[in-house]
Specification:
This protein is an all-beta fold. It is built from no helices and 22 strands. It has strands at residues 14-19, 22-24, 28-36, 43-46, 51-58, 62-69, 76-84, 87-88, 92-97, 104-109, 112-114, 118-126, 134-137, 142-151, 154-161, 172-179, 182-183, 187-192, 198-203, 212-220, 237-244, 247-253. A hairpin with a 2-residue loop joins strand 14 (142-151) and strand 15.
Length: 254
């Protein structure tokens, strides 16, 4: 008796979707193709010229890869198919769109800040977009947080200035805005030391042994960072509990 080998047919792949289904000229887009019966080494084919594909990973139902779109790639729809030894899928559409315009930055307000403080700024310019939005600050010690797209001409952010941020070059930092369209020219944001604090009054002005007294200091140019209270002699330990530019509150442990 002889036993014959049975060769099983490889099922044909199907391709149902590509996400995202569009990308801009001059960008690299990470895409996911969804379908069935994909195999390792499946061939992803893109019609036309100007798009290169690399770095694919495979499962039976998805392929993740990168589409590198040339800056001069022809605009419009392309067909994308997946081929295996079982056949080639029906196509899905991937569309090449124009690269967004490069943003411009006209002003930053306010354009100064002091060490140890957070400055809420508004950046004014053109061609701002939420896609790829970032506010960049040169050097170290100043970080942009809470970057928010308002409209095509306005972005808001908080610039957090470290207490020990460098004051080299007069404290000047270059600020730019980046979107999917590119990076703007720069505008200057200047940091400096905070002004010297002044003290005009303290209340109450006395306390007794073995007690804790809440003391209010009134003056100007107090800061929430780097403030300290200095008391002559020994036996009194101050702890700042709150601070505003004109008032500090501390507990004195006597």
């Amino acid at each position: 008796m002889s036993i014959g080998a049975v060769e099983l047919a490889v099922p044909a792949p199907t391709l149902t979707a590509i996400s995202p289904n569009a990308g801009a000229q001059g960008t690299s887009v990470a895409v996911t193709l969804t379908g069935t019966n994909f195999t390792a080494g499946s061939n992803v084919a893109i019609s036309g010229n100007g798009i290169n594909q690399f770095g694919a990973t495979f499962t039976a139902t998805s392929i993740t890869t990168n589409f590198v779109i040339a800056g001069n790639a022809t605009l419009g729809a392309r067909t994308v198919t997946v081929g295996t030894s079982g056949g080639t899928t029906a196509p899905v559409t991937f569309t090449v769109v124009a690269k967004p315009p490069v943003p411009t930055l006209a002003s930053i307000t306010p354009n100064t800040g002091t060490r140890g403080n957070t400055v809420a700024v508004t950046l004014v310019g053109t061609n701002f977009s939420a896609a790829g939005l970032a506010v960049n600050v040169s050097g170290t010690g100043v970080t942009a947080t809470n970057v928010t797209y308002v409209d095509a001409a306005h972005v808001t952010a908080n610039l957090v200035v470290d207490a020990n941020a460098s004051l080299n070059n007069g404290g000047a930092r270059n600020v730019t805005v980046t979107t999917a369209g590119g990076t703007s020219g720069s505008r200057t944001f200047t940091i400096s030391n905070p002004p010297t604090a002044t003290l005009t009054s303290i209340s109450p002005t006395s306390g007794t042994h073995g007690t804790t007294v809440n003391v209010t200091f009134t003056g100007t140019n107090f800061t929430t960072a780097g403030s300290s209270i200095n008391i002559s002699g020994t036996g009194v330990t101050p702890t700042i509990t709150s601070a505003t530019p004109t008032q500090l509150v501390a507990s004195f442990v006597i």
